[in-house]
Amino acid sequence: MSAIGTCYPVWLRRLREAGIDAAGFELDLMLEEGLSLSKAQRLSHPEQEIGPENIAQIQQWISRREQGEPLQYLLGWWEFYGRRFSVGPGVLIPRADTEILVEQALKELEHVPAPRIADLCAGSGCVGLTIACERPTAQVSLLELSPDAFDYCARNVKALAPGCRLIRADVLRTTAGLTGLDAVLSNPPYIPSGDLPGLQKEVQKEPRLALDGAEDGLRFYREIPLLWKEALAPGGLIAFEIGFDQATAVVSFLERAGFCHIRTVKDYGGNDRVVLGRKPRLS
What we know:
This protein is an alpha/beta fold. The chain is built from eleven helices and eleven strands. The strands form three sheets. The protein has a seven-stranded mixed β-sheet with strand order 7-6-5-8-9-11-10, sandwiched between helices.
């Protein structure tokens, strides 16, 4: 048995020496998840003792973090739009930037009574499932190719929005029979293949399939509008999360595919983050 007040500074130093910027934040999350010990409890009762099994658990997590494994994979979950999503090796970790895509979709579909939505490259399902939770009348289909990501998405569907439809599919090859959609949404792979080796070590632990956007990072933006336009109802929305320097290219792809009312939305850091467009209505 050891007191938390004795163990904590040792563990914190290890994380800091591993180059983890938010070491204190991460360690507090580990303690809360592994020991059910909140930061307030740790500070008010530094004498509280923890057993050898719990110590071993935290030390194992720290060792894995030192090797670059993402904190989210250790915890088995991450929060997105106020909800916990199951995550682990093989699925992209939800990020706050993606909430901009969700916010814009909710605004654009505000006056559609029961919107029919496809979330392409769904990963954990954070985009489509969040919309399903925020708009219970929405009819959401989530499409994912990776077997590992599909399994995590299935867990999240069961936990958060069991009425959603989960489809195993390559969204560059098929629309899976979906028609009359009010929205096609996607946070696709958008990192150029040549940039992958230079990503931080935690990101390199995430699945390449969810990151690699081909040589220029633009493959999915180039192909999805052409294939999925016919699955949209007239006036239907298409919306992508994009990399900070990809807006001009993505806008041009939507224009060439015949979309209209195209615009770009910035994230809270001032970077271009979402491109939206509409399928023309019938004249």
